[in-house]
């Protein structure tokens, strides 16, 4: 058996786009990290092309409770989102991740006028779903991981994450 057998594979699954409305800095916490709450009141969550179960949902609540390490090299994402599908079913998700901070990324997170869209790759994370429709139950029974970026545009900031379903290996030793 190959030394690389037994590893899971990834299937493109979900695209999340959240409109970032404002930042609410809370200051330094006991760990020395800086704590900031980002309000994300609207956006979309939808399945990637070809993924099952297929769905599209509108976000009606979202917030990211971020901490930025004291050394300013990494941020910790703690995102909660609630949405409703076109059929009226509820979806909630918890996303936890790490973002590698550099000057360009800091400009985005501090909402500087010269901030530019971040490329994918600085932020990675994992996500779990809770759903209100039996047709979407497969989302609860799966594990998702992905990466994200923040798009800087004329209408403000959009936090975008692309998640893959982690498909377990069926290899035998």
Short description:
With 173 residues, this protein is mainly beta. Helix content is 6%, strand content 57%. The mean pLDDT is 94.
In N-to-C order, the SSE pattern is: EEEEEEEHEHEE
Estimated helix fraction:
under 10%
User: Cα-atom Rg, whole angstroms?
Assistant: 17 Å
State the separation between the terminal residues, measured CA to CA: 7 Å
Strand content: over 45%
Summed over residues and divided by their number, the pLDDT gives a mean of 94
Count of DSSP helices?
A: 2
* Biggest sheet features: 8 strands, antiparallel, barrel
Shape: globular
| Strand segment count | 10
* Strand order of the biggest β-sheet: 1-4-5-6-7-8-9-10
Q: Poorly predicted ranges (pLDDT <50, ≥5 residues)?
A: none
Which class best fits the helix and strand makeup? mainly beta
Question: What does this entry look like structurally?
Answer:
The protein is mostly beta strands and 173 residues long. It is built from two helices and ten strands. It has helices at 103-109, 137-140; strands at 9-20, 22-28, 34-39, 42-47, 56-68, 74-85, 90-100, 123-131, 144-153, 156-167. The chain has an eight-stranded antiparallel β-barrel with strand order 1-4-5-6-7-8-9-10. Strand 9 (144-153) and strand 10 form a beta hairpin. The protein is globular. The termini are close together.
Please supply descriptive tags for the structure shown above.
mainly beta; 8-stranded antiparallel beta barrel; globular
Give the SSE layout.
Blueprint: E1 9-20, E2 22-28, E3 34-39, E4 42-47, E5 56-68, E6 74-85, E7 90-100, H1 103-109, E8 123-131, H2 137-140, E9 144-153, E10 156-167
Antiparallel strand pairs: 1-4, 1-10, 2-3, 3-5, 4-5, 5-6, 6-7, 7-8, 8-9, 9-10
